[in-house]
Structure formats: structure tokens, C-alpha cells
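Hey, quick one: can you model this chain's 3D structure?
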Amino acid sequence: MPRSNHRLIVLDPALCEASGPREETDRFHDACGVFGIIGHPEAANMTYLGLHALQHRGQESAGIVTSDGEHLYAHRAMGLVHDAFNSSQLARLPGALAIGHVRYSTAGSSHIKNAQPLAVDYAHGSLAVCHNGNLTNAEEVREELEARGSIFTSDSDTEVLVHLVATSREESLEDRVADALSHVQGAYSLLFLTEDTMIAVRDPMGIRPLCLGRLATNAKDAFVVASEPCAFDLIGATFVRDIDPGEMVIFNPTGVRSVRPMGRAEEHACIFEYIYFARPDSKLGGRSVYEVRKALGRRLAIEHPVDADVVIPVPDSGVPAAIGYAGERKLPFETGLIRSHYVGRTFIEPQESIRHFGVRLKLNPVESILRGKSVVIIDDSIVRGTTSRKIVKMVRNAGAREVHLRISSPPTEWPCYYGINTPTRRELIASSHSVDEISRYVTADSLGYLSLEGMLVAIGGKSAFCHACFSGQYAIAFTPSNKRQMRLVGV
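Sure thing. Here's the predicted structure for all 491 residues.
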């Protein structure tokens, strides 16, 4: 097929600078967020707002690609959405179609070359793609493509999909996408964009979320797709439904179609979306994230009760669980830790050592609530244990008589390979230490985790979730290639 005249236009490449070193934390790194819209005259502005609502899913880089029907226009930059775009840049992203992405790296380093959406010119025109998830056989497929002459410009596993689509011999875009996906395994919620078409697709197990919405305009309605429905609320769109596992939805000038080229496997939605990643005002799989977190707290109170004076959360993700715990135990709920909402990714640390400096930058105790009290601290997880230790000591130094730590999920013993950048197994404290040993390390008077069974009961299902980070029961069988990858990361 002759090469198309269509071309990709990249805006302001000088603004796309590499980031500095990543800050080490005791938290899970956020999954990515995707947003797409078709049929809106201000597609770029709507995508900017949608990405802002999904900022909690990735703070490393942001990007938008639009189409005016003839060309794709792309802008990507490191940092937060409001830093990556201004009104002038958005004005130079014309068209009624757009896809966008916020990223925290799970495969590929923290560098502008890995920022998404990835956008290329190829034999059939121009193509952009953004991805939330991880392909577990990406290295194996990449080696095969390189052996056939493909040249990669990024470390991201998403670029594997670009090459598979570009080299597919299928005629239509949807068939090329389906052909590409037949070669990969893993977790993916994907958006593809060409000059006149947007395709949304979710992996057969539905590991990562993806949902469909509709936005009324002066002409015909626009369709929107996002990782979470909270992105619809900001732009006034209406939630229609979750995109099903294994479903591909094609949006183009002829209308909207749904196909299932990959079939549907047993569903394994990521359970940690409910525990930590998703915004509490989102609804995933028909379940309110806020209500699920409250239910986790209530179940935690049943399994690990404490006759304490006050219950406090580690904000923000621990708040609903703490409300549930306090309600079940009929104990006062207080905001005993105040979170700063203005902490950037980097900061200047004083040369003179300040005890707990990193944690105090984000959290500070309210002494009047804690002094002389027996306190229950509710958090969503413990990863390495270092942050939990600092928080417990901070609360005790504020005058607490006793400090009891309660975790609204089971011990995190296994890394995730499906779109969450967890530490290696060696770095996960629960993989090598008992609950009593962890309790002593974090200096708590007692420590209680929610059981795996209790978590499933609270969320409302026993087989519909991936909980490999807690159980080690991985939903996708590992190939020899990614078994080698597992050994490299310490499993």
C-alpha cells in the first residue's frame, strides 16, 4: 500500500525534557490513566480536564493527541497535567477527536521518550496509542520484532503494540489491532486514534478498568472513554457502562460498534483499584469505591477490634476504611493526621538532618487529638514498612499513649506484573516477616491486617478479582521469557 500523505505534528518538542531521579516512597506507584473523546469541537480541552480528574493515577508525564480529520497533533511533557499544558498549547491541538494519558512508569524508565500517547506515521496513515497496564510477554515479542528489523525508540511495552499494528497484514484498523493483541498477554486498557477513528479495548480478563460515557453537545452527542467515571463528572458527561473484558469499541464517522475479537476469559479485575488506586468517588464494576473501602474498614474492625479512644486514618486513601472501622466499633473518628496537598515530586532537603522530614512534608499530627489517647491508625497497605514506622513514631511522639495499626488489606507479599509498579519481592516486608515482626519494626503496640477471605467478602466476590499481590495467585500464566523477568525482580 502506498504511504499516506497524512502526517503527525508534534508540538513544542523543546518542552519535553527528561525528568530527574524518582523519589523513593513506601507506597505503590500509581497505575496510568487514559481518556478519549470523539465528536466534540473542543476535544483537546475536554481531554485536558479528563486527565486532570485522572491525575491520581499518574503524576510523571501527561500527553494529548488530537485529530482534525487530516492530521494528528501531539504534545507530551513530563510533570503534572497543569504543568504539561497551557491554553496556548491546547489551542494548537485542533480537532474533534482526542486521546490522552497520565503516566507513572510501570514498564520503561521515567523519561520523555516513554511518555504517552505514543504517535507515529506508518504505511496506513498516522496512529496514536495510550495504554494502562502491562504486557507480561513484551520482552519476548520485542525481541522477535527486533529480529525482523523493527527499531524501537522507547523502553515502554506499549511500543510493542505500535509495531504489531504497523506490521499486521490485516486490512482494516480494527483487524490490525485485533491481530496485534493476539500476540500479547497481560493487562491492558487501550485507546487507539487515527485521523477519523478511535478504538477502545480492554483485555479479556478486565484487569485494568475502562468505562464508556456520553456527552451532550450542540450537535450530536460525543462519546468519551476513561479509566474511571470520575473523569466524566468534571466535563458533564454521563456514565453509560463499563467496557467489558475482551470488548473492542470502534468509534468512527459511521457510528459506534462493539466487537469481541479476543473472547472473554474469567474476569480478574484488579482488587487494588478498590483498595487504593481508584478515586473514592468512582464506581468500578458496579461497585462504589467509597462504599467498598468503608466495608473493608468494617470487616477489619470485626477481625481485629481494639478498645481504643480514637480512630484516625492515614489520608487520603485510608479515610473511608477508618470511617467504617470507627462506625463498626462505635469509636470516635478524628482527622489526627493532616495531609499537605501541595507536595511536589521533588523538594530541597535541609543539610541538617530533620527527623521524619520526608513524611512530615506530607503528614503532620494533630497533638490535641492524640495526646494521652489510645489510637487506632487505619491505612490501606504496608509495602516496605518504612513509612508506616515513621507515621507510628510521629503519632507516638505527638503524645499518644498507645498506637495500634490496622491495615484494610492483607499483607502485600508479591509484586504485580499487570500495571502497578510494586517493589521487588525482597523489598516487600510481608514477604519475609511475620505480622508480629512487622509490628515490632513499625513500633506499633499491635498490628492487624484484613484477611484475604474478609477482603473478598467485603468487596463482594470470590473469583472476580486479581489479588496476586496478596495471594501470589497470578491470573496470567508466565511464559519462559517473563519467568526470567520474574527472577530478575526477585520472585
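One thing worth noting: The CA atoms of residues 263 and 465 lie 18 Å apart.
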